[in-house]
Amino acid sequence: MNHKWLEWAINLQSIAQAGLTYGESQYDIDRYIQIRNISVEIMHEYTGVSHEKIRDLFASETGYQTPKVDIRASVFKDNKILMVREKTDGGWSLPGGWADVNTTVRESAARECLEEAGAYVKPRRIIAIHLADRNYSFPYPYSIYKIFVECELIDNCFAENTETIEAGFFGLDSLPILSSERNTREQIEMCFEAKKHLTFETVFD
User: Fold this and answer.
1) Which residue of 8, 61, 74, 157 pairs with 191 in a disulfide if CB–CB is 3.0 to 4.6 A?
2) What dihedral do alpha carbons 61, 91, 73, 2 form, nearest 10°?
3) Residue 8 scores a pLDDT above 80
């Protein structure tokens, strides 16, 4: 990811959030608010995303800033991988989403599979932990750890839900159009490679 402006905006946001958390004088707090506003303005200028959405996703947290966590499940049947079609962009992705608070990685992977694909699974192992902005061309406005979890399929029956349109199993040579914000072909290839091995060393940045 070569968007230097995005790196600067994220750094400004992180500095501002830490300052708003630990700053003591009103003078300092006012300056940190200005820094945060500048970071939002940079994001808006280069992405076209509304100020309101950027503030909601990028500049609404409190406390010391840490990466968000996105869980993606790798589930196979007959050497084909489970994918879901996203309502937001019509692309396909591995079942997954933001980890909930007070929820383990295992619980999050199982929940996402059930909610998005109607699949009951048993999480088995972590395949990889990727920092999103080093693996995607999409300009994420915050740091994200993407955790890929290999799961054993128990049963599946897709049900209508608020996030996905349909679910299906695909071979590596017949992958559908991907939801590029959520997963890359290289990451799916990685999941296929991991599935070949009884033991697989976790990949992480």
Assistant:
1) 74
2) -60
3) yes
User: Which position has the token pair 């128990």?
Assistant: 154
If one counts the domains in the chain, the total is 2
Q: Is the pLDDT of residue 1 over 50?
A: no
Same domain, 192 and 100: yes
User: Are both 34 and 76 inside the same structural domain?
Assistant: no
Instruction: Quote the domain boundaries for residue 51.
Output: 4-58
Task: List, in order, residues 6 or more apart from 103 with CB less than 8 Å away.
Answer: 111
Report the distance separating Cα 84 and Cα 77, nearest Å. Answer: 14
**Reduced to 3 states, what is the DSSP secondary structure of residue 96?**
strand
Percent pLDDT > 90 in the chain is 58
| Tens digits of residue pLDDT in 145-158 | 999 999 999 999 99
User: How far apart (Å, rounded) are the C-alpha atoms in residues 186 and 161?
Assistant: 28
The whole-angstrom separation of Cα 50 and Cα 8 is 19
Q: Are residues 109 and 173 in the same domain?
A: yes
63 falls within a domain: no
In contact, 130 and 79? CB cutoff 8 Å: no
44 vs 129: CA distance, rounded Å: 29
- Structure confidence by residue, pLDDT tens digits, 55-94: 776 666 666 778 889 999 999 999 999 999 999 999 999 9
Q: Which DSSP state fits 88?
A: T
